[in-house]
Design goal:
Layout (H helix, E strand, L loop, with lengths): L17 H6 L6 E6 L5 E5 L14 H17 L5 E10 L9 E11 L2 E10 L5 E11 L4 H20 L1
Antiparallel strand pairs: 1-2, 2-4, 3-6, 4-5, 5-6
Length: 164
């Protein structure tokens, strides 16, 4: 049985990050996602022209961002808060804009609080591999982001003190 986040935390059909929650849609073009019984997350998505880099192809930053999001959702959809500690992206072929894409990610192994995740982005028509990623996720507790905000405020206060 697929583990899902509570309905209040998971706006169908895609779990939205903080920035996307504000707009009410995934800015990466992720249309749907699914966690299957084997723990594989599958995305259906497309790159909108707003993310075009070269002529009719996605910007590499969009591709890396989508793969980072996908890697992270392996943990999120499994009910675990985790952050990306490392992401290695391999660009195989240019990603076309305005074409249906499919991406999949799964946990290959876990060592303590580290999840080793693999992701692959394909062109839906024909299944050509476009990009791959290997990511290391680090489990975090729910106080992680509030501790980050406290740290940031300390940094900003120190910078203000140094400028005075």
């Amino acid at each position: 049985m697929s583990k899902r986040m509570p309905a209040d935390d998971l706006p169908p059909p895609v779990y939205l990050c903080g920035g996307c929650r504000r707009t009410g849609r995934c800015r990466f073009g992720i249309e749907s996602e699914h966690l299957d019984d084997a723990g594989v997350v599958t995305y259906r998505l497309r790159c909108d022209r707003v993310h075009e880099g070269g002529l009719n192809v996605a910007h590499g930053g969009w591709t890396a961002g989508v793969l980072d999001e996908l890697v992270g959702h392996v943990a999120v959809l499994s009910g675990q808060l985790a952050v990306t500690g490392q992401l290695d992206v391999r660009f195989v072929k240019p990603v076309p804009v305005d074409q249906p894409l499919v991406a999949r990610a799964w946990r290959e192994s876990q060592q303590g609080s580290r999840w080793y995740v693999r992701a692959v982005l394909h062109l839906e028509a024909g299944g050509a591999e476009l990009a791959t990623a290997n990511g290391i996720l680090v489990e975090r507790d729910h106080g992680h982001f509030s501790r980050h905000q406290e740290w940031l405020q300390e940094q900003l206060a120190e910078a203000d003190d140094g400028a005075a």
